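Page 37, continued from 36.
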């Protein structure tokens, strides 16, 4: 195929890599395989895998697993995760590789993002163990003072599992402890997970106290004693800035809109001031 390309025409790295994968034998020496996989990972968004290339890599990964060789486990898991994010369908072996990588703490943002989607589509195989591994990884990062997108994606996984009626003490405890997390997106995920648990008839004293505190604060300022719904509670959880005086002057049916609008405008002003 290379001969068909003009000598003056440069072959893109992605296309060259696909040709290289296509020409691989069924068995590849470990150093060559490692170099190839690391190069694929490095290319990231510059490389769009094809179904044929993915099939070849799955075959190579299966061969490695038969030999109990986990040297390139994280690279395989990351490449497969990116393929699923591109729209390829998962199979039981790919899910096994992703879960094994997580359980061995070989974790990357794309791997966690895809695992959240696998939870939502009910295609996991070892959900409780894998979620425990994610939480252990999360707690270690928090102890070391690290905050990044992986933290949020792990909370998404925990909340997704809770929404699908998968509850376990470790996950519940983590959600309860993060109801007041400075990151509003994490707060919302924890709220959604614990609310889903409540909807299934499982009570949490900490979550109940959190909701009661929000409601009492709101009622104390607005003097309104009417029942307040879950959507309002979730909105209160998601915003950083409240204008309770404005709510007193607004119909209750518009509270959610007013809370979101005030929070958005206040954060925009804060960002402009910082600049």
């Amino acid at each position: 195929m290379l001969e068909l390309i003009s000598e003056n025409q440069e072959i893109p790295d992605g296309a060259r890599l696909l040709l290289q994968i296509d020409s691989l034998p069924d068995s590849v020496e470990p150093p060559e395989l490692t170099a190839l996989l690391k190069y694929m990972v490095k290319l990231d968004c510059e490389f769009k895998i094809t179904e044929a290339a993915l099939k070849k890599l799955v075959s190579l990964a299966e061969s490695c697993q038969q030999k109990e060789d986990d040297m390139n486990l994280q690279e395989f898991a990351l490449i497969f995760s990116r393929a699923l994010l591109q729209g390829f369908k998962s199979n039981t072996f790919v899910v096994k590789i992703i879960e094994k990588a997580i359980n061995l703490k070989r974790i990357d943002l794309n791997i966690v993002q895809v695992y959240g989607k696998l939870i939502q589509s009910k295609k996991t195989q070892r959900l409780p163990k894998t979620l425990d591994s994610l939480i252990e990884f999360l707690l270690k990062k928090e102890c070391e003072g690290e905050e990044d997108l992986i933290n949020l994606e792990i909370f998404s996984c925990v909340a997704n599992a809770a929404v699908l009626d998968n509850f376990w003490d470790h996950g519940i405890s983590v959600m309860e402890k993060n109801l007041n997390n400075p990151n509003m997106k994490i707060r919302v995920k924890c709220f959604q997970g614990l609310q889903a648990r409540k909807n299934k008839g499982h009570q949490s004293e900490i979550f109940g106290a959190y909701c009661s505190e929000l409601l009492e604060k709101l009622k104390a300022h607005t003097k309104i004693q009417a029942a307040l719904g879950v959507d309002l509670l979730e909105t209160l959880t998601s915003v950083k800035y409240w204008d309770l005086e404005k709510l007193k002057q607004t119909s209750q049916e518009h509270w959610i809109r007013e809370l979101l609008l005030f929070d958005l405008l206040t954060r925009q002003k804060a960002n402009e001031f910082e600049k």
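Residues 126-202 form one domain. Flag for discussion at group meeting. The chain is about 70% helix and 0% strand.
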